[in-house]
Amino acid sequence: MEQCKTPPSQDQRASTPMATTPVRNPPLPLPSVDGFDFPDPSSSAFSSSCCADSGKFAENVAFAQLNTCKGEDSLDACPPSSLYSVFDGHGSNEVSTFLSRTLHSRITSLLSTSSPLPSLSSALQTAYEEVNDSLPKTFKNVGSTSTTVLLDSTSSNIITANVGDSRAIAGSTDGTVTRLTVDHTPADPSELSRVTAKNVEFGRLDGALSVTRSFGDFSFTRYGLVATPSVSIHSLCDVRYILCASDGLWDVYTDEECHEVVARQMNEKVGIERIAKTMCEAAKAKGSDDDISVIIIKLI
């Protein structure tokens, strides 16, 4: 992607979508639908893979929608893009399953709105909040975190949205790694300030919930819990891969450690399906006892 010259723009601290105007570059190819399960490591086009280790609780869902315009009559009304999400449920798998059935379709619906077409970042925020509002209010003590990666072929940008502590990183061709999301926990000073420290005990919201933003968990909204995502925009320029995973991976690995493993295996021509499985297996071996979901999207 040598035509990309504009550096990534980002706002890791924003509670709401950034005002940054997406950088417009020549369109990039999209991965094939089959790529999610059966990537071709030798392909120069995008490919992707997922590993989901159910662990003890089986509350995670990893989901891909590789052409949000499928079935649309006009690409002008729905720019080519692909969506990837990791939903990490807690308390049960009810909310994560609900999200896998509704969130992408709501995002797609907003992206296909022609009058006027919403910005990509606004569409992600609106979808998150509307889907959370549509959850049964009986989900008082069950919920799910979510990290969504939207690859926009038209603008050659990565748009991410997340609530909770699932995370996405991007590894670049120059060997650097960039975190694309924000971990919403009481350990984050801005989150601690937002929910107020008096409502945090033992590093948890009301002494029970380890995240400060999530879907569901309605009994915690009085303490400041919200489903408003942090949204960021980054250029796809020189990004080699994107890794999106639940906190079962990040509990035992840093961003840099994951990047070292992924980049080394990509250099050794290991297929990304095998790399994703390796990340799950390595996290288990290192002591993670949580459910683990890993999506790797190969760009270069």
UniProtKB/TrEMBL annotation:
Q: Name one Pfam family in it.
A: PP2C
Disordered: where is this region?
1-34
Q: Which GO terms describe its molecular function?
A: metal ion binding; protein serine/threonine phosphatase activity
Q: Which InterPro entries match?
A: PP2C, PP2C_BS, PPM-type-like_dom_sf, PPM-type_phosphatase-like_dom
Establish whether keyword Hydrolase is in the entry. yes
For this UniProt entry, what is the primary localization, expressed as one broad class? membrane
The entry's keywords = Hydrolase, Metal-binding, Protein phosphatase
Mode of membrane association: Peripheral membrane protein
Domain PPM-type phosphatase: where? 47-299
Query: Can you say where in the cell this protein is located?
Result: Membrane
Which stretches are tagged as biased composition: Polar residues?
A: 1-23
Cellular component aspect of the GO annotation = membrane
Family note: Belongs to the PP2C family.
Name listed for the protein in its UniProt record: PPM-type phosphatase domain-containing protein
Species for this entry: Triparma verrucosa
